[in-house]
């Protein structure tokens, strides 16, 4: 039995965007070039609209393909594996301790952290919504069993309102989760995650922490330090840690950063 961590970019999304590009191209030819049933200004408008849609969808389709190849666990690049192992390296749990991975997806980071801390227990939490239907609790449990990891459990929950008491865990982790939660204050999401961290506990949270999504993260780090958090660091993961700045630009992952520290 082998683990199946899937791809962080669902194949259905890649196919859907490519199909949309093909459809826009066909409509551009039919109405804009050939002009079936239309003429004059309407034909010009349709040509412009379908032409723009075709070009935009082609560009996004290319980006999706690049993402899919880079994040494949079975491909050459295996960026996802590098990121998971890199984040897990920061997770140290005491004997009998508990760790929480928020937005566990297919369980990769939860399992990697559990393997590094065999005398502690890791909990993976996710809403497993329809947006990522290929990720689910049975898949996580299958992967844990395939890896021979037993000090682990998976629960369904909401990252915006964790169903745990304050200071419940010795470590909290998360990877590429919060940027997907639309309409939410990202720094508020971080605070909700840190709320369940015990004093003395560690945290390692990776995401696309660009200013447009997260606001002023340098100031956020200062706030955490002023509140008693120790060793708080904001690490640029596009500067050679997980990927180069050139690759980050190519994959549109500028702003990816790892927030690590201790409470």
Q: Uncertain regions: pLDDT < 50 for 5+ in a row?
A: none
CATH superfamily of the largest domain: Vaccinia Virus protein VP39
Largest beta-sheet details = 7 strands, mixed
How much helical structure, as a percent, in the residues? 40-55%
Q: For the CA atoms, what is the radius of gyration?
A: 21 Å
* Discrete helix count: 9
CATH topology of the largest domain: Rossmann fold
Q: What is the total tally of β strands? A: 7
The H/E string reads HHHEHEHEEHEHHEHE
Dominant shape: elongated
Order of strands, main sheet, comes to 3-2-1-4-5-7-6
Average pLDDT across residues? Answer: 95
Search tags:
single chain, 263 residues, alpha/beta, Rossmann fold, 2 domains, 7-stranded mixed β-sheet, 9 helices, 7 strands, 43% helix
Question: Can you describe what's shown?
Answer:
This protein has 263 residues and is of the alpha/beta class. The protein has two domains: 11-70; 79-262, Vaccinia Virus protein VP39 (Rossmann fold, 3-Layer(aba) Sandwich), CATH 3.40.50. It is built from nine helices and seven strands; from the N terminus they run αααβαβαββαβααβαβ. Helix 1 (11-34) packs antiparallel against helix 2 and helix 3 (79-88) packs across helix 4 (108-116). 35% of the residues are buried.
């Amino acid at each position: 039995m082998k683990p199946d961590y899937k791809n962080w970019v669902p194949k259905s999304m890649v196919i859907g965007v490519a199909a949309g590009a093909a459809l826009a191209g066909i409509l551009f030819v039919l109405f804009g070039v050939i002009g079936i049933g239309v003429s004059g200004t309407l034909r010009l408008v349709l040509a412009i609209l379908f032409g723009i849609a075709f070009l935009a969808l082609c560009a996004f389709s290319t980006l999706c393909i690049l993402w899919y190849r880079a994040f494949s666990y079975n491909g050459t690049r295996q960026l996802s594996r590098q990121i998971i192992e890199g984040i897990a390296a920061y997770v140290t749990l005491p004997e009998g301790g508990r760790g929480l991975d928020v937005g566990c997806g297919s369980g990769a980071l939860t399992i990697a952290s559990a393997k590094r801390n065999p005398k502690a227990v890791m909990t993976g939490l996710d809403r497993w919504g329809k947006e990522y239907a290929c990720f689910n609790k049975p898949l996580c449990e299958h992967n844990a069993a395939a890896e021979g990891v037993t000090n682990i459990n998976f629960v369904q929950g909401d990252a915006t309102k964790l169903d745990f008491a304050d200071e419940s865990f010795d470590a909290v982790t998360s990877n590429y989760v919060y940027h997907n939660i639309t309409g939410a204050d990202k720094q508020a999401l971080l605070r909700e995650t840190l709320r369940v961290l015990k004093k003395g506990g560690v945290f390692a949270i990776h995401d696309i922490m660009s200013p447009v999504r997260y606001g002023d993260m340098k100031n956020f780090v200062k706030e955490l330090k002023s509140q008693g958090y120790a060793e708080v660091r904001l690490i640029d993961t596009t500067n050679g840690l997980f990927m180069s700045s050139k690759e980050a630009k190519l994959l549109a992952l500028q702003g990816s950063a790892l927030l690590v520290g201790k409470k």
